[in-house]
Amino acid sequence: MKRIAIIGGGISGLAVLHYLKQRLGDSANITLYERESSTGGTIRSFKKNSCLFEWGPNGFLDNQPASLQLIEELGASGHLIEAGPKSRRRYIQINGQLQTITPLLLKNAWPLFKGIFKKNISKDCSIYDYVRQRFSVNIAETLVDPMISGIYAGNIKRLHMASAFPKLKQKGFKKTRMRSFEGGMGQIIEVLDKRYKQHIQTNSETSSTPKVEDFDITIVATPAYSAAKIVENINPVLSNLLSQVPYAPVAVAGLLFKRDSFKNIPEGFGYLVPTKDNKEILGVLIESNVYSGRAGDDEIMLRVIIGGAHHPAIINDSSDQILAKAIREIDSTYGLLANPLETFVKQWPMAIPQYEINYPQWRRLIAEQCAKTPGLYLCANYLDGISFNDCIFNARALTKNIIL
User: Fold this and answer.
1) What does the pLDDT read at residue 210?
2) Domain containing 134 — which CATH number?
3) What are phi and psi of 93, to 5 degrees?
4) What's the pLDDT band for 172 if we cut at 50, 70, 90?
5) Which domain holds residue 220?
6) Helix (H/G/I), strand (E/B), else coil: 71
7) How far is CA 386 from CA 125, 346, 353, 398, in A?
8) Fewer CB atoms < 10 Å away: N or C end of the chain?
């Protein structure tokens, strides 16, 4: 019987476990090792009274069939919810003032129109250079920059266009919806946990995890900096490559208010902030406008996202300092008449991997080194996409290609 280890219990590792069990059933001895006391990685939902706070992602787009199929296979489709109509309006904060996306698009209609017909604009460059050449500097700095901050918390002058958006040329149009679960994104982790409990070993520090060479197959599904330590003894070159992956730090502050605590009631999905405004705040999500069940009927739940590649010093702030910054931001934008009912803080010193300019060469070298190490596979969001959808799609593709 083949011995298979999955190291790392985030969504990538859990999805790999699911697909391997589908493929192999009980014909292999499969164990997932997670060093924390619970699985999920950055995906975790924290419920307190009427409030639901997300540590990490608050949803996913339903344009990836693999994700919806996984959810169906787990019997969790009935727990899916859609983003509500209140979330359709989105804002960008420019010089402290909220502006809806549509007027900003109209102001830039001509460069946008011209850019559609430009050809031979290479994607082998930074996002900033690509957008600047195809459209304009203003579109890059005012529209694209805050969007990238909302996804990667990154620097568009350093992120690689083709790597960050590999499916840009995908043809056809399909209406996509933002989805989550009644109990938050953590609900899918709970479902996976429950189904595969007998195959999951938590509280397993990397140092105490059985050695990679003790298994026939090892899938390392940890962040790159952890994976570098795990493979150090079997492939030092691969370890060195993995240690080079940059990550952006992010702090998330949750604030629950009574609805009448605001001079101006927060509307829409929330807002993003362009880098040129030189604020530590990346954006604000009005969670109770996006999904039902995130706050009471007379309450508003917000999450303030702080830090990113431009403000790495956020990792030195205490929870109290982060909360103070978040409350000041909400006060300056909406006007506060009362203090929050509940507050939550989660700090991620190494939150999101950055697909920088050298990513294509780095990715090729990673593949070459993995090929030189039989039985070793990597699966995590520093490879081929950072989203929930990417992680599931890549986990399924990997398990199909594992050589037994």
Assistant:
1) 58
2) 1.10.3110.10
3) -95, 120
4) very low
5) 2-41+186-245+355-401
6) helix
7) 19, 19, 7, 16
8) N
Say which residues have a Cβ less than 8 Å from residue 25's Cβ, sequence separation at least 6. none
| Dihedral pair phi/psi, residue 53, rounded to 5° | -115, 130
Q: What pLDDT is attached to residue 324?
A: 98
pTM for this structure?
Answer: 0.94
Tokens found for residue 275: 């880098």
CA distance 254 to 344: 5
d(CA 77, CA 62): 12
Domain assignment present for residue 274? The answer is no
Tell me the DSSP string of 272-296: E--GGG--SEEEEE-HHHHSTTSS-
Give the residue ranges of DSSP H helices in 25-167: 65-73, 101-107, 109-116, 127-134, 137-139, 145-152, 161-164
Q: Which of 20, 352, 37, 391 is nearest to 195 (CA)?
A: 20
pLDDT digits (tens, 9 = 90+) for 22-35: 999 999 999 999 99
The amino acid sitting at 49 is: N
Assign 174 a pLDDT band (cuts: 50, 70, 90).
low
What residue type is 315 in one-letter code? Answer: I
- Examine the domain organization and report whether 22 and 152 are in the same domain: no
Instruction: Report d(CA 243, CA 240) in Å as an integer.
Output: 5
2 phi, psi to nearest 5 deg:
-65, 140
**For 201-247, what is each residue's pLDDT tens digit?**
999 875 455 577 789 999 999 999 999 999 999 999 999 999 999 99
Number of domains in the chain: 2
